[in-house]
Design goal:
Layout (H helix, E strand, L loop, with lengths): L1 H7 L4 H4 L3 H5 L3 H10 L6 E3 L5 E3 L3 H13 L14
Antiparallel strand pairs: 1-2
């Protein structure tokens, strides 16, 4: 219904919000994975080994989340926000 409304009555788009079908796409599992990967918003990761990794791509975010999940429970995770 929302998709048809967006197509047939474009003047109502601001009132009805975006079409969830277009937002989610055809693959619900992939959509859920993408959303879960974006929970921790950062673009770089410094590992305990001193390695910097870039997390700005889907594969980078997947690595980032896998790395965090594998840390020991006593590990302390710090997010630093720096503006130069």
């Amino acid at each position: 219904m929302i998709k048809a409304l967006h197509r047939e009555r474009p003047e109502l788009r601001d009132r009805v919000s975006s079409c969830p079908v277009d937002y989610v796409g055809d693959d619900l599992e992939a959509f859920v994975e993408r959303q879960a990967m974006d929970v921790l918003p950062t673009h770089a990761l410094l590992t305990l080994d001193g390695e910097w990794t870039y997390a700005g791509t889907l594969e980078g975010r997947r690595h980032f989340n896998t790395y965090l999940e594998q840390l020991p429970p006593e590990a302390l995770v710090v997010r630093v926000l720096y503006h130069g």
